[in-house]
Every structure is written in structure tokens, then in C-alpha cells.
């Protein structure tokens, strides 16, 4: 039985800041952002969007009434959780109107969380072939204004339906993974902003990739020639390129040209949205599938997942015969190109606008947010969500 990605949906906030404008404000050569790290736009989440609302907005794009009956497991992967105890997946389950006979949990391991969720989903589907698992990676990347990591911020969510006989990507059994205790990126419990050792994180990202790639080759007997493309978790778009170059000498010139060309295509959405942590790898996958129109069914796509702290994994999937019919290409193109560009001043004001931390109540104006699901405020220490 084949198990994999049956549907995939995307949500990015309707606001963004131009990286050229941000660079000028920070007295940085714009090419350091646009070429050096490879980012053009950064999605900015208004206060009316959080990990829950973005997750639901992404899921609404793909979940129909038939899916609602089949989904019996909801996994929200996030490192932007809204509660220390209650899983954000409970809110997702409720706002989507799913039936009560479904497990709903939240999963955390930095940017690796959605991959762990998919592996859990595969096990569940193996036992329950008629069911579907809803996996969502949803995050708001925050490092702080004028910090070294500011240019690698972003916000968004990718939702995936995992099931048997998938229409998009059938995931193969071979999978190589590694865990090591590394303090390259973390967010202390008292902080709403991440801390990062950028140099160490870059080094570990590549080191983990080469390690799990070697494991994977030993398991599978496959090499670069067997892949149409390799997709990556991208904190910024140049990061995956560095990792790919680390193994490129293993293949032919044709392999190098094919993989690098497809890498650039796969990074298009990431360049326009920024880092969305747990959803970043799957944003990369979606960009490849939607923007590379001549990818042939039956070809193999590699996936490299990395979550600081750290866990890394390499696995692969086979494109299914009618995969393009399941991709809302026009809808994604329209949603990304119709976003509103905001000034750096507006971006900074939105960044500094946060929910109260003293238990006080707040009502938010959701009229300016075009998303179907929004955060409308906080009352009695409970977030108030609305579905328009």
C-alpha cells in the first residue's frame, strides 16, 4: 500500500515587506538580503493571525466534506504555540468542523515538527487505510527588529492530507535520520523571540544533511542520478543551495544542472514568503510542483528536513500520475501576488503589537484581515476565534 500526500494547501498572510526597503532602513546593502541570503519578500502576520488561524486557513483550501468524514487524526506542528498545555490542533479541529472521533495533538521539534507528523501519519494510515490524517505546519518566525536574524523571518502555514493511494506524492519507505544535542537555535519559555547562533546553525544544517544523505544512500542504493529534484527546509533560500553543493560532486554535470535548476524553482515561494519554520520544507515542495510544469509522474523527489536543536531527516517520494490536478496553482499565484506591500514603519508597528501577557482582555478589529479565520481577541485568558 502506498501512503503519502494526497492534497496540499497554503496560507500566507496578506501583508509583506519588501526586503530591499528593509535593507535600506537597516543600512545594509540590499543585495545582502536579495542575493546573499536569497530573500525578496517577508510575509508579515497581523495580530489577527496566529499559528491556529493560519493552520485553519491553509486547511480550508483543501478539506472538503468527504475529507471531513475521513479525517480521524489532526496533527499541528508548530513552534509558535499559543498555550503551554492545550494543543492548537484542538482549535483547528473545532474551527474546521471535524467530527469528534478524531485524535488531535500538537507536535514540536523546531522546524522538523511537520516531518515528524508525517511519519506518525504514515503509521496511522498503515493501520487505518481508509482514514486521512491532516498534518499542518504553521509558524510565525520572530527574531526581533534590527537583529541578525530579522531578514530570515516570515509567516505562513502548509496543510497536507496524508492518506493511502495518494494523488500527489507517494512516500517511499527508506528514511534516514539523526538527532544530536546542539544549541544552534532555541526560544526560551520566557521569550516570544528566537535565539540563534547563525554560524553554528548553518554548519549543523549542512553536517546533518551530509550525514543523513550518506545513511539514505546506504539504505536505498540510490544516488543523485535517481532524483528529479531535492527539496529542503529553507530558513532562507541560499541555505539549501549550500547543502546541495556539498554533495554535488557525486553526480554528473547533467545531475548538477538538473538539481540546481529545479532547486531554484523550488525556492520561488520561499523567496516570496520567508521562513515559516515547520512548513518551510513543504512550501519548498509545493513551489517545485507548481512552478516546474514539466516534472514527470513517476519521478523521485527528495526531501531534507532539519529542525534546530537538532533533528535531521532525508526521505523521498514518487510523483503520482495526476498530481498537477490536485494543485491549486492559480489560486496560490493569485494569493501571493495580490498581497499588500507595507512600509517598514508599518511592519515595525505590527511586529511590536502583541497580545496582553497580564491576563487583561482585548478586542481586535478583524475587518482589515481578509482571511476567513481570524483571532478576534482575548477574554478570560481564552483566545476568541472567528470564522467569517
Automatic annotation (TrEMBL):
Q: Which residues form the Hydroxymethylglutaryl-coenzyme A synthase N-terminal domain?
A: 2-165
Q: Domain of life, per the record?
A: Bacteria
Hydroxymethylglutaryl-coenzyme A synthase C-terminal domain location is 180-248, 266-352
Answer yes or no on keyword Transferase.
yes
Going by the UniProt record, its keywords in alphabetical order are: Transferase
**Which Pfam families does its entry note?**
HMG_CoA_synt_C, HMG_CoA_synt_N
* Family annotation (InterPro entries): HMG_CoA_synt_C_dom, HMG_CoA_synth_N, HMG_CoA_synthase_prok, Thiolase-like
Family according to the record: Belongs to the thiolase-like superfamily. HMG-CoA synthase family.
Name of this chain's protein: Hydroxymethylglutaryl-CoA synthase
